[in-house]
Amino acid sequence: MKAGGAPPLAVLAGVRVLSFTQFLLGPSGVQFLADLGADVIKIEPPDGRLWERHWSGANHFLNGVSAFFLSTHRNQRSLTLDLKKPEGQDVARRLVEGADVLVQNFRPGVMRRFGLDWDSASRLNPRLVYVSASGYGERSPYRDRPGQDLLIQALSGLAAISGRASEPPTPVGTAVVDQHGATLLALGVLAALLERQRTGRGLHVEVSMLRAALDLQLEVVTYFLNGAQLERPQSALASSFHPAPYGVYATRDGHVVLSMSPLSELAGAIPLPALAAYAKETWNFDDRAAIARLLEPVIRERTTAEWLERLVPRGIWVAPVLTHAEAFADPAVQAADAVQEFDDPVAGRVRLLRFPVELSTGRAAMTRTPPRVGQHTDEILGECGYGAADIARLRDRGAV
Asked: Among 288, 320, 352, where does a domain finish?
């Protein structure tokens, strides 16, 4: 299947990835690799017990298929395997012997119980790139605690830096830590594959949600670590460290954001004479609260469209605050061509976000729809040398 006339990406063609993943971080990171052309094998429990097949945000299912599962499992094959059974572990070890990458995001220690930890797997396959993704890290004192996006936002300081000082801490309204962690996971795999090509040896890559959450705060954490005193604002300002007018302002019929326009330019574009006194300093941080309070009633006098019509031609950094419905109708989002559609045999017509990076050699395409439970079990076992009788015996014993 081709997208926009470009061939499917084959950057990772010939790379086999074993995905022992669950929830969002691991599956999303592996999907990046699948979109780049890797052969990704999703190992999941028999009988459809995989957690993400049974949960979906807003309890949203398409003909019984989890929209959450659909969002992170395209271009992958499904192999059912019961890792609690010795026969299932034997199959997993054979898969490891022929794999290039293994990605797992179980809690630390789980893969060791299955005999599939880094030390064991690297003895089976010294060229294996082994990825461990977890909430807090393999050696963290919190290694046994649940690693979930909201928990990590709270623990890392991310939830405490947004919103007004008079309001409760304001978490980001999406699983931003998971998705940034997924990106770091894919980045780590690509780096490790390049290193293996140079040395011939496999590597252990570690990714944690906690480090991902801290990295998301690179700028503000740098200020904090070097002595800056930062506090959440009381006014419309949107961060603890930007000068005015940086913030969200109510209009007569909605909201706009004003970003980092020099105050002299803003004073020339907004009918607010009192602003001129503050505009003598290009980036007036000390008076930012007073500036925001001056702006709030003036911005509320006109509609969002009126402010855009007035400020955009003057070069002021302004944008409307859009809902998802408005955003996906906006010319900029439409021109980004970020959505792909496909027909799933059960879910029906499905719309998902595309792989977010464009390459000149091709475009990530939907070559495999998200798999049904164990859809490719016989196919994958056959590739590992199991005959029909062997596969039937594994099924009889509940290992697959």
From this structure: 320
Question: What are the E-state strand segments in the chain?
Answer: 16-20, 39-44, 61-62, 65-66, 76-80, 101-104, 129-134, 204-208, 247-250, 255-258, 318-320, 339-344, 348-353
Q: Which helix (H) or strand (E) holds 193?
A: helix 176-199
Helix%, strand%, coil% for the chain, nearest 5: 40, 15, 45
The tokens describing 114, both together, are 């299955």
Asked, for residue 382, whether it belongs to a domain, the answer is: yes
The answer to whether the predicted template modeling score (pTM) of the entire model surpasses 0.90 is yes
Tens digit of pLDDT for each residue in 114-163? 999 999 999 999 999 999 999 999 899 999 999 999 999 999 999 999 88
Q: Is 339 helix (H, G, I), strand (E, B) or coil?
A: strand
Domain for residue 46, yes or no?
A: yes
Q: CA 118 to CA 214: how far, in whole Å?
A: 26
Identify whether 195 is part of a domain. Answer: yes
- Range of 275's domain? 255-320
Residue that finishes a domain, picked among 278, 293, 320: 320
Residue 1 predicted with pLDDT over 50: no
Given this model, what pLDDT does residue 4 score? 57
192-243 pLDDT per residue, tens = 999 999 999 999 999 999 999 999 999 999 999 999 989 999 988 999 999 9
Beta strands, E only, 197-246: 204-208
* Number of domains comprising the chain: 2
Separation between Cα atoms, residue 320 and residue 326, nearest integer Å: 10
Same domain for 346 and 303, yes or no, is no
